[in-house]
Request: fold
Amino acid sequence: MRFLVVFLIGALFGTGIVLSGMANPAKVLNFFDLAGSFDPSLAFVMAGALSVAAPGYALLFRMRQKPVFDQSFRLPKASAIDAKLIGGSAVFGIGWGIAGFCPGASIPALGLGHASAAIFVGALLVGILIARRLARVDVFADPARSM
Reply:
C-alpha cells in the first residue's frame, strides 16, 4: 500500500511538472534570461505550489501527530546558515541555470525522452556520490566548530 501511495504522489508531481512546462529546460532557462526572452511562468508555478503546500502543511500538522506510513514526521533539525548550505545552494542554482533542470523536474523529463535530462540525471548521480564521499572524509566540517 505504501509503495502505491508513493507511486501515485510521484505520478501526480510528475504530471504537474510536465503540464506546467517545467520539464522543458528552455522554458526554465527563459525565466533566468532577464535581458532577453524572459518568461515569468516559473514564478507563477512556484507561487501556486507554495499557496497549496503552506496551508496544506499547516493543516496536516494540526490534524495528525504522525504520518500514515511512519512513526514520526522527519523534519530538518538544522537551522544554521553555514558553508554547507550556501555551497549546496550555489551548486544547485548553477546547475539549474546551466542545464535548465532541477532534480525534481529531470525525472519527468526523462519520461518525455529529453536526452539532456538523461545527461543531467547521470551528472546528478555522480554529484551525489562525490558529495557522500566528501562528507565521509569530513571535508564539509565547520572549521569554527573544531576549535
Q: What stands out?
A: The CA atoms of residues 21 and 138 lie 39 Å apart. The mean pLDDT is 87. The two ends are 49 Å apart (CA to CA).
